[in-house]
Give the backbone structure.
Amino acid sequence: MMPQWEIKEIKAVLFDLDGVIIDSNQTIIDAWTKTAEEYGYKLSQRDIDNYIIGASHTFTLEHILPDQPEAVRKAFHRKVDRREEAASYALIKGVRRFISQLEKSEVRLGLVTSSWPGKVNTVLQQHQLNVFDCIITRNEVSRGKPDPLPYRTAIERLNIEPAFSLVFEDSNNGITSALAAGMNCIAVNNRTDKSLACITDFTEITVGQDNLLCRFYGENHGIGWRSKV
């Protein structure tokens, strides 16, 4: 069923990486959980939901290792990074087709992620997705998600007002970041905020002319909903 959502005019579409473009959440959870166990910590589901998925590493470390010195946090984080870099990742269903459709329009594309350049470049090269006009990694900002700074930095570089931007995010931290930056947001496999449109994956959304959720600025076509076949 078509969700009830006001049509917005869009000039830029921005994506998170983990859980939105690549199916990586379980890999991330495993990397943090196994490393925590090596340091004598057991992470709860609340820790995972609130402090790991979609969050910056500094935000995560402040909450799960609050009493540890900076040297210990850095060593911990290096182990997490190595585990993530050693993994391989599949694309979220439908995302390649959807991005290819967007490339044919006048809309600009952005990637805003809590991951680091090494991982981002590997993933984009592996899947031949070097299509983004702007890429913001954790190295580009002093404060990561759920702070709005990553998305504010992206739209400043794209020179586009927040109201004309659409974000695809899967985590509560990422959604909080995008909304706090004043941007429109569609949730991916996350129905926590009932006021947001939500897709399970990108097979449910397309670029066309019918039943538009978001219309590209100055054009009759845009991003619309379609039911799975």
